[in-house]
Amino acid sequence: MKFPIVIIVVLLSFCAGGAGAYFYFEKSAVASTGDTAKDAVHEEKKAKEDAHGDGHGATAKNVYYKLDPLILPVVNRRGVSQTVSMVVMVEVDSERSREVVKSNAPRLTDAYIQDMYGILNKHAALNGGVIHVSFLKKRLRNVTDKILGEDKYLDILIQVIEQRPL
Q1: 16 inside domain
Q2: Which one of 19, 65, 97, 127 is CB 3.0 to 4.6 Å from 101, fit for a cystine?
Q3: Number of structural domains, the chain?
Q4: How many C-beta neighbours within 10 Å does residue 21 have?
């Protein structure tokens, strides 16, 4: 009589474990999905609210477009020594200019990666492994000038920057 009860308890345990694993692994990580459509809708909504004012008399003059995060390796003679992650926003003066930046976002990201891939190692080596934000911002502006033109945007804003040694 005890043997069938033990078998039932073991089967229920396996089923509960399987269900738990299913629900645990079914959830996707938010950072890995890159849910940019939701972010873009949220940014557009916020830009419209800012443009119309918030009821306190404040209005926004400039509009921003957030590019996808950039993750760049810093390579030296021994291989990858660290990674640099950053989030870049482009400041523009109108919604029309924002659409121009949005349509050129893949080209901008590609150009940023190509420009900074080799130069980050040289700059980090000169400054003891630390990359200065002013250096990055200057490089980003030069690349953006080549892709968009100087009159299509106002500024490049670095929202997040992180260096991780390996």
Answers
A1: no
A2: 65
A3: 1
A4: 10
Q: For residue 55, give its domain range.
A: 35-165
Which CATH number belongs to the domain containing residue 128 in this structure? 3.30.479.30
CA atoms of 110 and 146, how far apart (whole Å)? 12
Question: What backbone torsions phi and psi does residue 16 show, to the nearest 5 degrees?
Answer: -65, -40
Query: pLDDT tens across 92-139, in order?
Result: 988 898 999 999 999 999 999 988 887 777 766 556 667 778 888 998
Domain assignment present for 102: yes
Q: Is residue 11 in a domain? A: no
pTM (predicted TM-score): 0.59
Find out whether 73 and 80 touch, Cβ atoms under 8 Å.
yes
Q: Position of tokens 């873009």?
A: 40
pLDDT tens-digit series, residues 97-109: 899 999 999 999 9
- From residue 13, alpha-carbon distances to 8, 10, 18, 27, 104 in Å are 9, 5, 9, 22, 54
